[in-house]
Design a protein that fits this description.
Elements lengths: L1 E6 L7 H11 L3 E5 L10 H6 L2 E6 L7 E6 L4 E5 L12 E6 L2 E7 L9 H23 L3 E6 L12 H4 L7 H13 L2 E2 H5 L8 E2 L11 E2 L2 E5 L7 E6 L1 H4 L10 E5 L3
Parallel strand pairs: 1-2, 7-8
Antiparallel strand pairs: 1-14, 2-4, 3-4, 5-6, 6-7, 8-12, 9-12, 10-11, 13-14
Helix pairs in contact: 3-5
The protein binds one DNA strand of 18 nucleotides through loops.
DNA sequence: ATGTCCATGGCACATGGA
């Protein structure tokens, strides 16, 4: 079972690129972020034609998350994080596919920091951590997949010193990620590549792709009962190098059948 | 600070968010 996360940065603007990647990569489940499309503008018919059932939570202009399943329909278990009915951002979807509970998340960016956007990011993560703990307590096999907008360690940044004060890398958010790990989750890509510099995002600015000035922002975290099923994983870097690409590359894992 | 994308409103290109 191949599970991918991909910040598409505009699902309609990059629909052709998404369909091309789906055809060549054949993921079983895809978590998409930054749809930048309202609920009624999600390209469900085109994805259905490509063989993918979908659920999505759109939003005008910004944010937006979706989950696709190959030759199946995700069985939705939750939309939106619990804990704040006033939070209207579309950043969280959760569904079961083929016996695995999968969360699709798009964490707030948080810049500029300090400031209200950074406070929102930290508050959002407090709710996320509380919910992640509840998911672990169910004993279900769970994958938390998405754009975390956090580089967990220096190994996840092309130039750590330049990012120390950024909302994606400040001590407060790295501590949040460490607390998540302490709950018992496994960072799948880091487990597969413990020493390697691996990136999932390259800024559009300053020729970041050409210089390989990347960041690792997109993560798939596994509940303890899934770690033994982790067969492999990677980042489809070549997708980032194409014309009209998203600034993120698809990131994926392969789980064995039970 | 800079840089480059997306979507929006409205029909040219400025703006916000990332």
């Amino acid at each position: 079972m191949k599970i991918a996360t991909f910040n598409i940065n505009g699902v309609n603007g990059r629909l052709e690129a998404l369909l091309e990647w789906l055809e060549e990569a054949e993921p079983d489940v895809v978590c998409l972020q930054e749809l930048k499309a309202p609920q009624n503008k999600f390209p469900a018919a085109a994805l259905e034609k490509a063989g993918y059932g979908a659920i999505w939570q759109g939003q005008k202009s910004w944010n937006g998350v979706a989950m696709l399943a190959r030759n199946a329909d995700p069985v939705e278990t939750r939309r939106g994080l619990p804990g704040d009915p006033d939070d209207l951002h579309s950043r969280y979807l959760e569904a079961a596919v083929n016996g695995v509970l999968i969360a699709c998340l798009y964490a707030p960016n948080g810049n500029p920091a300090p400031g209200p956007k950074f406070e929102y990011k930290l508050a959002w993560y407090e709710r996320f951590l509380a919910h992640a703990e509840d998911l672990l307590a169910t004993g279900a096999p769970v994958v938390l997949a998405g754009d975390y907008n956090i580089m967990p360690t220096d190994l996840d940044v092309y130039s750590p010193e330049r990012w120390r004060d950024d909302a994606l890398f400040r001590p407060e958010v790295r501590k949040v990620f460490a607390r998540l790990m302490a709950q018992g989750w496994t960072d799948a890509l880091r487990k597969l590549h413990p020493e390697e510099r691996i990136y999932t995002f390259w800024d559009y600015f300053r020729n970041a792709w050409g210089r390989n000035a990347g960041l690792r922002l997109d993560h798939l975290l596994l509940s303890p009962n899934l770690v033994g099923r982790l067969q492999g994983g990677g980042i489809d870097r070549d997708v980032r190098g194409r014309d009209h690409a998203s600034d993120h590359a698809p990131t994926w894992i392969e789980l064995s059948d039970t």
